[in-house]
Design goal:
Elements: E1 10-11, E2 17-18, E3 22-24, H1 42-52, E4 57-64, E5 73-74, H2 81-92, E6 97-103, E7 118-119, E8 139-140, H3 143-162, E9 167-172, H4 179-182, H5 198-201, H6 203-215, E10 221-231, H7 239-251, E11 257-263, H8 289-294, H9 297-306, E12 313-316, H10 321-329, E13 335-338, H11 340-344, H12 348-353, E14 401-405, H13 409-420, E15 424-429, H14 438-445, H15 453-465, E16 468-472, H16 478-484, E17 488-491, E18 510-512, H17 513-535, E19 545-549, H18 553-564, E20 568-572, H19 584-597, E21 600-602, E22 606-610, E23 614-618, E24 624-628, E25 631-634, H20 643-647, E26 654-657, H21 669-682
Parallel strand pairs: 3-4, 3-13, 4-5, 4-6, 6-9, 7-8, 9-10, 10-11, 11-12, 12-13, 14-15, 14-17, 15-16, 17-26, 18-25, 19-20, 19-25, 20-21
Antiparallel strand pairs: 1-2, 22-23, 23-24
Length: about 675
């Protein structure tokens, strides 16, 4: 076995033995019923799929210990117990342990109903560790209010015990309620719960653990989610303080320690250890880049905490099977936590055990699942996340002859699913290679943070395993369709990118996305996207001063690419805002970085003329501005073109138009894969 340590059992207690070292860490899913119950919900389906996939345990994140609107699983009333019992029973039926994780956002919450978020201490806008909109003033609790909160938490723990959970993870990380007492970033108190020493800062947690142990079954496990370090704020938890905290939690009865971290500052990365290097890490994070690249921020902290731990230590963050095995062999942690890895592929543990590595759907760190605007959670690479009932991939009742036109991600996914369901599939593309523009996207994005290449690798590998006929280097016309006589056609071609009619737009100093794709076609074949991305730091056939037309995802990501290569960049966008299509976790870091790097952004502005010397822009106040530049790049969204689809209406009864063939609204990878999955399921 290539990864023997991963599949060695481990005992958290004598009664709670994990069958392997891979567990699902706590993340709220937003897939429960609107009233917070679990009964018959899609959330249960999701966690049962993860249990079937071989995880040793799942931690159910986002369990509310008091009435909370909308998205959280309820633990604050006995009415939730029947649904919770359904959840625990369906997970445990697959030999998988299940833990609840109580949730209260504390000072990390957004204000609601006119009330400030609660915390250990009252802090003003000037005192909070990150400015609005990423942080908000908060209200400190009185001692009697602290005791009330402790009782609510303990009652939730007891209710989890009654509902059949194997244990509870008490959340003391991520700027949430209990973390606000343990961290001197938030805690300014001078009483018995104050900031003076470790004993006082951890008192609220110790009292919760002790009372929960008194009221729960002896074999009900109590663990802690804790910050190993806090970054970017004065008085943030240091690793030395975290080690002292860990000892205090153990002494109070914690039976495992799940190590995380938290980041503050003007470009906060909050609880996720992935996004802080984008577009570049802040100065205070640069000393940690080596450990980040080596085994991860949280593993570095976990390895220190492991030195004082008498209980199992969990680490997480950007894990794959090889890194996980190395961490366990090196003794940095005892258990590997997987978050988005199991959103992307619930069968990850079984596939690793069976050494089917090429069949693993890899998380690409796109942050689509972290977007607070998107509820419930979605996964770019696993469109079935939370949608299993909608996306039924069972065998088709009638075999069809299917033409899929377009070999990008949308077409590849449609062809894959259709073939799996038993259809006769032929995949066409006018290019000689599959993948569409995914390699170009990889060159622009790079692979250090977000990495889209695994999508290409997975889809092309799966297509090669299936009876899908390929017709590459073939331009499909209506006549081609007439001759083939298919039962169904899936159109997954790319729509054209917008190129506004402006005087000078066709000049030699102007580049479009279509033109760029053509220019890099040969170098891409010769070098591949990863090497080519590195080479563009050495040579890039673009002038020193660049005006980018378009301020949505295409223009913003293009501007980041250019600025990293030393260009002076100005973005001109006709609408009032920029960044449409960029997931929030990335977008909230771009504005401060643009300001720091001097990227000029003009919104509600229109380019009126392009010349060799620059561009004339009409500003929102009606005045005209001339911007000197050497190059102009038109990086604007796609526009739908239904001409080809319309030409097939009389030829084929079933036509599906998917992905970027529908224009910018469906132009991202997350749309391509979802549309491809849907089309394959509907055929």
């Amino acid at each position: 076995m290539k990864h023997p340590k991963l599949f060695t059992p481990i005992a958290i207690t004598s009664q709670c033995i994990l069958k392997n070292r891979l567990i699902k860490t706590g993340q709220s899913t937003w897939l429960w019923n609107e009233d917070g119950t679990a009964d018959g919900s899609r959330g249960i389906d999701l966690y049962e799929n993860i249990a079937k996939g071989g995880a040793a345990a799942v931690i159910i994140g986002g369990c509310a210990m008091e009435a909370t609107p909308g998205i959280y699983l309820g633990l604050y009333d006995d009415k939730f117990i029947p649904g919770l019992q359904e959840l625990t029973g369906r997970v445990q039926a697959h030999g998988c342990k299940i833990f609840a994780q109580f949730h209260h956002s504390g000072p990390a919450a957004w204000p609601r109903l006119g009330q400030l978020p609660i915390s250990s201490s009252s802090l003003t806008v000037d005192e909070i560790p990150m400015p609005p909109p990423n942080g908000n003033p908060c209200r400190g609790l009185t001692v009697s209010e602290i005791h009330e909160m402790q009782e609510k938490i303990v009652e939730s723990i007891v209710r989890a015990d009654k509902s059949g959970f194997d244990g509870m993870e008490v959340h003391v990380a991520h700027g949430y309620f209990l973390n606000s007492f343990v961290s001197r970033v938030w805690n300014r108190r001078d009483d018995e719960y104050g900031c003076q020493n470790v004993e006082n800062r951890t008192r609220i947690v110790k009292e919760i653990l002790q009372e929960a142990r008194r009221r729960c079954r002896p074999d009900f496990v109590l663990g802690i989610r804790m910050n190993g370090r806090e970054y970017g704020a004065k008085n943030g938890i240091t690793i030395e303080e975290a080690m002292e905290n860990a000892k205090a939690f153990q002494d109070a009865g914690a039976q495992f320690l799940n190590v995380a971290g938290y980041g503050y500052g003007t470009m906060p990365f909050r609880y996720c250890p992935d996004y802080f290097p984008y577009p570049e890490p802040e100065d205070f994070m640069k000393p940690y880049m080596d450990v980040y690249r080596h085994k991860g921020l949280w593993t570095d902290s976990a390895s220190h905490i492991k030195k004082v731990a008498r209980v199992p230590v969990i680490t997480a963050g950007r894990m794959d099977e090889d890194l996980a095995e190395r961490i366990l062999n090196d003794g940095d942690a005892d258990i590997i936590g997987l978050g988005r890895t199991l959103w992307a592929d619930p069968e990850f543990p079984n596939k690793v055990y069976e050494e089917r590595f090429e069949d693993i759907v890899r998380c690409t760190r796109c942050a689509s699942c972290e977007d607070p605007v998107t509820q419930p959670r979605i996964c770019r690479v696993n469109p079935s996340l939370g949608r299993d009932r909608e996306l039924d991939m069972s065998p088709a009742t009638r075999k069809k002859k299917v033409m899929v036109i377009g070999g990008g991600p949308a077409g590849l996914e449609a062809a894959r699913v259709a073939a799996l369901r038993g259809h006769e599939v032929t995949l066409y593309d006018k290019e000689a290679q599959l993948g569409g523009r995914i390699k170009l996207a990889s060159m622009i994005k790079g692979c250090a943070v977000e990495n889209v290449l695994p999508i290409y690798d997975y889809l092309t590998t799966q297509i090669a395993k299936l009876p899908v006929r390929l017709r590459l280097g073939t331009t499909v016309t209506a006549e081609t369709v007439r001759q083939e006589k298919p039962d169904a056609v899936v159109i997954a071609t790319s729509s054209p990118y917008a190129v506004p009619e402006i005087p000078g737009i066709h000049g030699s100093n102007v580049s479009t996305i279509k033109g760029l794709a053509g220019k890099v076609r040969l170098p891409m074949r010769l070098f591949g996207p990863q090497l080519l991305e590195k080479l563009t730091h050495i040579f890039l056939p673009v002038g020193r001063r660049v005006v980018v037309l378009g301020g949505q995802i295409e223009g913003v990501q293009g501007a980041v690419f250019l600025k990293k290569r030393g260009r002076d960049v100005t973005i001109v966008e006709e609408s009032a805002s920029i960044g449409a299509g960029i997931p929030e976790r990335y977008f909230q870091r771009i504005g401060p970085w643009f300001a720091k790097k001097g990227v000029n952004v003009l919104t509600e502005a229109r380019v009126e003329e392009i010349s060799k010397k620059g561009v004339k822009v009409r500003l929102k106040d009606g005045t005209q501005k001339f911007i000197p530049c050497d190059s102009v790049m038109v990086l604007m969204p796609q526009v739908p073109d239904t001409t080809f689809a319309d030409s097939l209406k009389e030829l084929v009864s079933e036509v599906h138009v998917i992905g970027s063939a529908l224009g910018a609204e469906n132009g991202l990878l997350k749309h391509a894969l979802l549309d491809g999955r849907r089309a394959g399921c509907r055929l």
